[in-house]
Amino acid sequence: MNRPIFMFRPNLRSPEHRKAWEILQNVPEGQKNAFLVRAILETVHKEELEHLLRRVIREEIQAVPVSAASREDAIPQEMMGFLDSLLTEG
């Protein structure tokens, strides 16, 4: 089986491409493939962890009960009275 060929052609007008090119140039010869493999795998791993963390936080927030007392504290009684008066005027 032939090894696949990958070509990286940065657009040096792009600040991100230029920075990536500078970083890649500082990697010692013979280690660039390993560096790129690690960078790709770490990026995917971080994205997966972020997705998992967001899902867990979302689930935990949904599991927290909201008590009536905390809802009443969130909106002052004066505001509730004002809103009630708007509803009854019509």
List the helices and strands and how they pair.
Blueprint: H1 15-25, H2 32-63, H3 68-74, H4 77-89
Outline the structure in words.
With 90 residues, this protein is mostly helical. It is built from four helices and no strands. The chain has helices at 15-25, 32-63, 68-74, 77-89.
Short description:
This protein is mainly α. It is 70% helix and 0% strand. It has a domain of 55 residues.
Please give a handful of descriptors for the protein shown:
90 residues, 4 helices
Oligomer: single chain
Structural class: mainly alpha
- Sheet having the most strands: none
pLDDT average, as an integer?
87
For the CA atoms, what is the radius of gyration?
Answer: 27 Å
- What is the succession of H and E elements? HHHH
**How big a fraction of the residues is strand?**
under 5%
**Tally of separate helices:** 4
Query: Which geometry do the CA atoms define?
Result: elongated
Q: Could you tell me the number of beta strands?
A: 0
> How far apart are the termini?
79 Å
Would you identify the regions where 5 or more consecutive residues have pLDDT less than 50?
none
Q: What level of helicity do the residues show? A: over 70%
